[in-house]
Design brief:
This protein has 478 residues and is an alpha/beta fold. It has 3 domains: 149 residues, FAD/NAD(P)-binding domain (3-Layer(bba) Sandwich); 115 residues, FAD/NAD(P)-binding domain; 111 residues, FAD/NAD-linked reductase, C-terminal dimerisation domain (Enolase-like, domain 1). The chain has 16 helices and 25 strands. A 5-stranded parallel sheet has the order 4-3-2-8-20. Strands 21-22-25-24-23 form a 5-stranded antiparallel sheet, with helices on both faces. Helix 1 runs parallel beside helix 8 and helix 3 crosses helix 4. The termini are far apart. The relative contact order is 0.11. The protein binds flavin-adenine dinucleotide and nicotinamide-adenine-dinucleotide. Nicotinamide-adenine-dinucleotide (NAD) binds next to helix 6, strand 13 and strand 21.
Length: 478
């Protein structure tokens, strides 16, 4: 007979979003049921951030070995063993997995149910042999790869992020459809591991990013040997494992392309299948579960967070957004506060080399917003540490409003994902550009680009006649 549970919180999905809510609620001693139908840890741990960053780390080592000659170490050719690289990737997942495990959460006092959840009424959910009637629900069911309608694709074996980290042999030619974050991170990683790679992108690669900053990343990928075809689509696919033929259309021209492996990375769709949201009166569409600015769904008892939340959840799908949502829901569900989603200082990073990190508005967004803006830039090549490391590609670009208010910052640079943090803090705390200029940064570090770009705000003042007259006047006093 089914067991009926009546916790304070019932969370569906043990990915980044669901686990964060469960851990925080358990820390406050709140009774929680956590339901997961797949792997604990969700996409980020198993088929997303963690394996992709582990693969990128392996690829970076291969690249460094090839670059050794420039450092006087002799030119070397790395011996890449895909099966061993896969083992490395999976051992990294294994090292982190205990943090997200059912055992850990059970020990924290969470009741973990390993089953698929579906609503049977507005206030009731069924999962395996349990019925849950909580005070509040938190839906954190994530997203799945969105597969485009390409003729023949359904009869051809293709990879997505859910299968791409299991390759045990180097692809003879990897074709990636989609030149967004997943496409470009994996394109560069596989190229550096020795596979020929072609990216087919319907629009502009990294199309959501500032074109000037994206250009640094694309130039680096092309230097590595990745073929990137923009404004191109795949209209037909045929073939079998190891022998796939594609028809690519580009401004009216049709060309044929052969691939050993095809990876589809054309965006994500919310994972709401099987939840039977209608039974609970929860509105949703292809963009996700409809939420308001407090992450509440059309059923007041139910929140939706992380990748499955619709556009008013902020419209970004990242692990740190999922964690941020979790914090808002904890405040709302446990403390009856009404915090709103605020994405103004939410950073994002594309982990290519150089990395591309952004917080706040891009130049284009700031111009579209009206108001007068100032754009500051500083090239990575002007940084002494970058020269020593022979990694000089990129620049920092800062968008300012009136009085030096920071509207946004974009960095294309090695380690940009780390360099963006002071800018995120500055925007969160409403600091001004003078605050970024007025602190000491250790020499020689890449962080100096942030201070240098901030100081460049004052360069025009140094040439002002009044300033020069003041210096002349003060000189009289000895
Ligand atoms: C290749 C790749 C690389 C990425 N890299 C980064 C990165 O570097 N940095 C970053 O910030 N983000 C990255 N992301 C995005 C990040 O992985 C997601 O934003 C994050 O995982 C979302 O967390 P979530 O909890 O909303 O969803 P998920 O992690 O997808 O978790 C949802 C969970 O819900 C479960 N579930 C779904 N339906 C049900 C049901 N009916 N019953 C029970 N359980 C259910 C699923 O099995 C899953 O475990 C990457 C994504 C991909 C694909
Ligand atoms: N570093 C990170 O934080 C990170 C890494 C990977 C993924 N993610 C998350 O996962 C999300 C999904 O990544 P993604 O790369 O799949 O999506 P994306 O939206 O970033 O990029 C998809 C790309 O595919 C293109 N496209 C769509 N249909 C196409 C078609 N039929 N033919 C050719 N090109 C087509 C789009 O123009 C777009 O450029 C990201 O938006 C991000 O939220 C984050």
């Amino acid at each position: 007979m089914a067991e009926t549970l009546r916790p304070d919180l019932c969370i569906v999905g043990a990915g980044s979003a669901g686990l964060s809510v469960a851990a925080a609620a358990a820390a406050f001693g709140v009774p929680v049921v956590l339901i997961e139908r797949g792997e604990m840890g969700g996409d980020c741990l198993n088929v997303g951030c963690v394996p992709s960053k582990a693969l990128i780390a392996a690829a970076r080592r291969a690249h460094d070995i090839r670059q050794a000659g420039a450092f006087g170490l002799g030119t070397l050719d790395p011996q890449v063993n895909y099966a061993r690289v896969r083992e490395h990737v999976h051992s990294v997942i294994g090292a982190i997995a205990p943090n997200d495990s059912a055992a850990r959460f059970t020990a924290l006092g969470v009741r973990v149910v390993r089953a698929s959840a579906r609503f049977v009424a507005r206030d009731t959910l069924e999962a395996g042999n349990v019925i849950v009637k909580p005070r509040r629900f938190v839906l954190a069911t994530g997203s799945r790869p969105a597969v485009p309608a390409i003729a023949g694709l359904d009869s051809v074996p293709f990879l997505t992020n859910e299968t791409a980290f299991d390759l045990t042999r180097r692809p003879e030619h990897l074709v990636i459809v989609g030149g967004g974050t997943i496409g470009l991170e994996l394109a560069q990683a596989h190229r550096r591991l020795g596979a020929p790679v072609t990216v087919i992108e319907a629009g502009r690669a990294l199309g959501r990013e500032d074109p000037e900053l994206a250009a640094h990343v694309l130039a680096a990928l092309r230097r590595d040997g990745v073929a990137i075809r923009e404004n191109a689509t795949v209209s037909e696919v045929a073939g079998e494992d190891g022998d796939i033929r594609l028809v690519v259309e580009n401004r009216g021209t049709r060309t044929e392309l052969k691939a050993s492996h095809l990876l589809v990375a054309t965006g994500r769709r919310p994972a709401t299948d099987g939840l039977e949201l209608e039974a609970a009166g929860i509105a949703h569409d292809e963009r996700g579960i409809a939420v308001d600015q407090h992450l509440r769904t059309s059923n007041r008892r139910v929140y939706a967070i992380g990748d499955c939340a619709g556009p008013d959840g902020g419209g970004r799908q990242f692990t740190h957004v999922a964690n941020y949502h979790a914090g808002l829901v904890i405040r709302s569900a446990l403390f009856r506060l009404r915090p709103r989603v605020d994405m103004r200082a939410m950073p994002r990073v594309t982990f290519t080399d150089p990395e591309l990190a952004v917080v706040g508005m891009t130049e284009e967004e700031a111009r579209a917003d009206g108001g007068r803006i100032t754009v500051l830039r500083w090239p990575v090549a002007e940084n002494d540490r970058a020269q020593a490391e022979r990694r000089t590609e990129g620049e920092i670009k800062v968008i300012l409003g009136r009085g030096g208010r920071i509207l946004g910052c974009g960095i294309a640079a090695p380690g940009a994902g780390e360099l963006i943090t002071p800018w995120t803090l500055a925007m969160t705390r409403n600091l001004r550009i003078r605050d970024l200029a007025g602190h000491t940064v250790p020499y020689p570090t890449l962080s100096e680009i942030s201070r240098r770009v901030a100081m460049s705000y004052y360069t025009p003042s140094a040439a002002k006649p009044m300033v020069r007259r003041l210096i002349g006047f003060l000189r009289r006093f000895g």
